[in-house]
Amino acid sequence: MRSLLDIVDLTVEEIDELIATANDIIADPDKYAEKCKRKKLATLFFEPSTRTRLSFEAAMLELGGSVLGFSAANNSSAAKGESVADTVKTVGCYADIIAMRHPKEGAPMIASMRCDVPIINAGDGGHNHPTQTLADLLTINREKGHFDNLVVGMCGDLKFGRTVHSLIHALTRYENVKFVLISPDELKVPEYIIDELNKEGIPYVETTSLEEAMPELDILYMTRVQQERFFNEEDYLRLKDSYILTLDKLDTAKKDLCILHPLPRVNEISVAVDDDPRACYFKQVLNGKYIRMALILKLLEVA
Amino acid sequence: MMKVGAINNGVVIDHITAGKGMELYHFLNLDHVDAPIALIKNAPSQKMGKKDIIKIDAELNLALDALGYIDPNVTINVVKDGVRVEKFHPQLPEKLTNIVQCKNPRCITSVEQEIPHVFKLTNKETGEYRCIYCEAKAR
Ligand SMILES: [Zn+2]
């Protein structure tokens, strides 16, 4: 039985297959309404993330399955010192598939090694969050129809933003994708990613200016610049407005730009942008549910 | 050079970087072995100036492969009936189990003591190993 721990566990073909299934679900949801009848999804959230948990639960409910689980360690056995392995072995007796979020990196891998039901990593610390990347990819696919020949802007905190790292990684597997990496100097992408881009000969530019980058972008992936990432408040205050997306800044953007954000946002996208047809971040949330449905079907081997 | 008798059946771990002999001795758990063992430190070496050597006169099931990670210089000589029958440099092992500890405080191994610390060889040229759980580099 397979698990999904890291986006790189999936081949390009498998990602294409998940996207095709998700598109088919969107086209004809009734066809899938009972696919997981009598199957149970357990959501084990050792760290709370209401948004992600609800997305998994909604996905399973729409497939006709049911859900059980817990959120946050303080009211669960893990708080009493039970190991991850024991918790999932126990839950594996009741559930057919497990979506798990844990503050420690690698916890879902331990779970998958010790348990017979498929494990979906729903976020392990700052390490991996593959279903977010799948949601990003489905949204790009639905908005653009393809992954190749795109200019992809990544803006904000590119140093700590794991969703950024994993989306870059996933998109490098397609032809002729160019990355525009927009961030303050303090929050540039880590060196290992630049090394990977250089090694694969993938075009990229690093810039500090969102305005300058805007005209050439097909995709703009926004992330939050958090104050705690800066050494002093002065730098933060000096920089923060440069990475806030407003309607003014969109003046020079392409008419078919696709704006994404992993959410939740704080203030990095002005609410006024929400009504612009180029704002795709709420569609991205909905797509997250559909791609999780496709993933559950795949891992449960339900045709 | 100081004379230490030749061995009959066992292994000679030669060309150990001078000063690393004791580390290898402990790594191989030789302090718990009831057999004739010699640890020679700072022996003169044409190639290396000086080197450490370990001679074990017993056929033991030792984790010799992992020596390539601790000291890539070593040569291993297998001796049978007083004759050297095999000589090799240990390769970098694909996996190290409980040889390196993961030092990433965010790693699951930092909170669950019973999980084996497993590192995977991720770059043969640089000898880079990463934790299989959190992907932190071995240090
Ligand atoms: Zn680790």
Descriptive overview:
The complex is a heterodimer of chains A (303) and B (139). Chain A has a 5-stranded parallel β-sheet with strand order 7-6-5-8-9. A 4-stranded parallel β-sheet of chain A has the order 2-1-3-4, sandwiched between helices. Chain A contains 10 helices and 9 strands. The longest helix of chain A is centred in the last third of the chain and has 19 residues, at 281-299. Chain A is 37% helix and 15% strand. Chain A has 2 domains: 7-129 and 287-299, Aspartate/ornithine carbamoyltransferase (Rossmann fold), CATH 3.40.50.1370; 131-284, 3-Layer(aba) Sandwich (Rossmann fold). Chain A is α/β, with parallel strands linked by helices and 303 residues long. In chain A, helix 1 packs across helix 10, helix 5 (130-144) crosses helix 6 and helix 5 crosses helix 10. Chain A starts with 11 loop residues before the first helix and ends with a helix. By secondary structure, chain B is mostly beta strands. Chain B contains 2 helices and 8 strands. In chain B, the strands form 2 sheets. Chain B has a 5-stranded antiparallel β-sheet, with helices on one face. Chain B has a 3-stranded antiparallel β-sheet with strand order 6-7-8, with no helix packed on it. In chain B, a hairpin with a 2-residue loop joins strand 4 (75-80) and strand 5. The A-B interface holds A 83-84, 102-107, 109-110, 124-127 and B 104, 106-112, 114-115, 131-135. The structure holds zinc ion.
